[in-house]
């Protein structure tokens, strides 16, 4: 097993261990693997989402530390995932509602046929070497994430494609001939998986020097001292924490339940913000009928919380 990324648990930082993982591998038996994967997670009180496909596994799970260790041990015991790596952080409350092991066509959806990171991929760059690469004037830095993610944090000087979906990325590349103006392309994403396919696609398009941040933003924020960091803002994560910052500390963002956009503390002070109903991003696009429905859902969520339960619509 290579370089499994385990983070010592800081005192009082959180009671749920979060593990983000992915692994590209030929996985022909993926359909038969779904039920035992779901079962091992359920048996260990682990929640989250794991996607499995013919090309491997991808997802994020959370739970009690012993439960997460048991699931990871189960995965490492599979010959296809013996070399699987993961990244760890902590959450002060359970960041997922349920456990979902899902069968998919792709473990990260780009929508381009025959992109195989096991065949061709960019050059990995460790977090300790990333600053030097992106500070090089011969390097063009590209954020491969979507607009709602880049809105709350990016590396300094990075190009934002303003995509709504990762499926939009290939067309963005094809429509921007000026990407070839610099000899080096440096790409990054949250945990590294999107860059596996994005750098493979760039190589297929004829770009030669293509690099990507190993372990993604999460590994950079874990390892890079804040005083040396070239990262500005917070990193969007796909769970109830919404964002993390340097040291993988939970950020201050919440999520609008109407439009799913991340909100800063300043956003929540806007007169257009109504918790669970509307925010500065969607107040003009939602009808009064929408708002009435959201208010009813929010009341149900608050009642469930007072009963010590969690509403399924939260």
UniProtKB/TrEMBL annotation:
<dbReference type="InterPro" id="IPR040503">
    <property type="entry name" value="TRHO_N"/>
</dbReference>
<comment type="function">
    <text>Catalyzes oxygen-dependent 5-hydroxyuridine (ho5U) modification at position 34 in tRNAs.</text>
</comment>
<dbReference type="InterPro" id="IPR036280">
    <property type="entry name" value="Multihaem_cyt_sf"/>
</dbReference>
<keyword id="KW-0819">tRNA processing</keyword>
<dbReference type="Pfam" id="PF17773">
    <property type="entry name" value="UPF0176_N"/>
</dbReference>
<dbReference type="InterPro" id="IPR036873">
    <property type="entry name" value="Rhodanese-like_dom_sf"/>
</dbReference>
<dbReference type="GO" id="GO:0016705">
    <property type="term" value="F:oxidoreductase activity, acting on paired donors, with incorporation or reduction of molecular oxygen"/>
</dbReference>
<dbReference type="InterPro" id="IPR020936">
    <property type="entry name" value="TrhO"/>
</dbReference>
<keyword id="KW-0560">Oxidoreductase</keyword>
<protein>
    <recommendedName>
        <fullName>tRNA uridine(34) hydroxylase</fullName>
        <ecNumber>1.14.-.-</ecNumber>
    </recommendedName>
</protein>
<dbReference type="GO" id="GO:0006400">
    <property type="term" value="P:tRNA modification"/>
</dbReference>
<feature type="domain" description="Rhodanese">
    <location>
        <begin position="135"/>
        <end position="229"/>
    </location>
</feature>
<comment type="similarity">
    <text>Belongs to the TrhO family.</text>
</comment>
<dbReference type="InterPro" id="IPR001763">
    <property type="entry name" value="Rhodanese-like_dom"/>
</dbReference>
<dbReference type="Pfam" id="PF00581">
    <property type="entry name" value="Rhodanese"/>
</dbReference>
């Amino acid at each position: 097993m290579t370089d499994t990324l385990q983070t010592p648990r800081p005192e009082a930082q959180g009671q749920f261990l979060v593990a983000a993982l992915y692994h590209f591998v030929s996985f022909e038996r993926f359909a038969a693997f779904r039920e035992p994967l779901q079962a091992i997670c359920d048996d260990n009180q682990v929640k989250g989402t794991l996607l499995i496909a013919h090309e491997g596994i991808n997802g994020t799970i959370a739970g009690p530390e012993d439960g997460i260790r048991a699931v990871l041990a189960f995965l490492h015991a599979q010959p296809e995932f013996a070399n699987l790596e993961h990244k760890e952080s902590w959450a002060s409350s359970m960041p997922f509602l349920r456990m979902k092991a899902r069968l998919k066509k792709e473990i990260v959806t780009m929508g381009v046929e025959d992109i195989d990171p096991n065949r061709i991929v960019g050059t990995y760059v460790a977090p300790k070497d990333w600053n030097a690469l992106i500070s090089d004037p011969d390097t063009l830095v590209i954020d491969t994430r979507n607009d709602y993610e880049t809105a709350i944090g990016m590396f300094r000087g990075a190009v934002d494609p303003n995509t709504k979906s990762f499926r939009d990325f290939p067309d963005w590349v094809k429509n921007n001939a000026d990407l070839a103006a610099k000899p080096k392309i440096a790409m990054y994403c949250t945990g590294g998986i999107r860059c596996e396919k994005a750098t493979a696609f760039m190589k297929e398009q004829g770009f030669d020097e293509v690099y990507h941040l190993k372990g993604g933003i999460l590994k950079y924020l874990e390892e890079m001292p804040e005083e040396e960091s070239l990262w500005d803002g917070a990193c969007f994560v796909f769970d109830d924490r919404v964002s993390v910052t340097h040291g993988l500390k939970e950020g201050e963002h919440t999520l609008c339940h109407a439009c799913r956009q991340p909100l800063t503390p300043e956003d929540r002070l806007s007169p257009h913000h109504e918790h669970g109903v509307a925010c500065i991003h969607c107040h003009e696009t939602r009808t009064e009928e929408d708002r009435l429905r959201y208010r009813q859902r929010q009341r149900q969520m608050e009642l469930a919380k007072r009963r010590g339960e969690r509403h399924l619509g939260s």
